[in-house]
Amino acid sequence: MITLDGLTKRYGETAAVQGLTLTIEPGLVTGFLGPNGAGKSTTMRMILGLDRPTSGTALVNGRHYAEFSHPLREVGALLDARALHPGRSARAHLLATARSNGIPAARVEEVLATVGLSGVARKRAGAYSLGMSQRLGIAAALLGDPGVLMFDEPVNGLDPDGVRWVRELMRSLAAEGRTVFVSSHLMSEMELTADRLVVIGKGRLLADAPVADIIAASSRHRVKVRSPHEDGLRELAARLHAQGASAEETAPGELLVSGVRVEPVGELAHRLGVPLYELSPQDATLEQAYMELTADSVEYGAPHPEAVR
Ligand SMILES: Nc1ncnc2c1ncn2[C@@H]1O[C@H](COP(=O)(O)OP(=O)(O)OP(=O)(O)O)[C@@H](O)[C@H]1O
């Protein structure tokens, strides 16, 4: 488990992270999203004790990273896949890391096999492609068999097979009860991989919720309802309006509801005795929901092509 409490980091005038308070739970893949410069890497660096918070705390399993005598057995991380000694082979790199954390050398062969690098383990890491470096970084994170794993952009540079492999690896690590915290800019991939999302913008928390809830909160998310009972549908629409949702009659006997998930609409229809011929979510994509959430937080946005014309 990772616990952030009022976590704040300032670099001079720049407030990189501002008062983040949240818990990243075990047994789930938690995606960490935010525009460039939002503070994701800074947050991860503070969790790993690589940056000192200006105020607040970042704890792993209730303790500061610096308190662990064998940190790699508690938390494994991939932050920068290229941060390797280029002259060392993958095996030598992993052996050195293992030795410094009291991890048996046999574990190196296991993680090399897990990430598919056994056949090239004697090659210089400097000659690796970006995708191979990512795999080596993931191997290093897994080395201590830790309960907490953090990955900063792990699919960067991977081919589609590699992307799918990372997705399955993240899911299986979470299924084993580990805490998996992963940042990415690839929304479609996050939609497939993550259970929960933490979204930040300009260092501040924008959302911390299950993926489905974040998508359902998008104004583009709709629920289509069809019934032959037009009076009943009108009553349903009025009740939904009263609950803060909006319901528009798009055709006789058809409503498009926004601002609410499909389940409460179905339950309300049942309570009102309105027979339904259709009750279907017209899902927004995570990308649409994310764009709405972060619209005011994008610092380095280019003008939209239509605004330039
Ligand atoms: N060492 C540093 N010194 C000064 N400013 C920094 C430093 N590290 C990060 N920052 C600033 O802090 C802010 C957050 O940066 P950070 O790298 O954490 O964002 P990010 O969400 O990881 O971005 P990206 O998606 O582009 O990787 C940015 O404004 C960045 O310029």
UniProtKB/TrEMBL annotation:
Organism annotation: Actinomadura rugatobispora
Positions of the ABC transporter domain: 2-227
Family under the similarity heading: Belongs to the ABC transporter superfamily.
Gene3D superfamilies documented for this protein: P-loop containing nucleotide triphosphate hydrolases
Keyword flag Nucleotide-binding: yes
Record key words, sorted: ATP-binding, Nucleotide-binding, Transport
Transport listed as a keyword: yes
Gene Ontology MF annotations: ATP binding
Name assigned to this protein: ABC transporter ATP-binding protein
Organism classification: Bacteria, Bacillati, Actinomycetota, Actinomycetes, Streptosporangiales
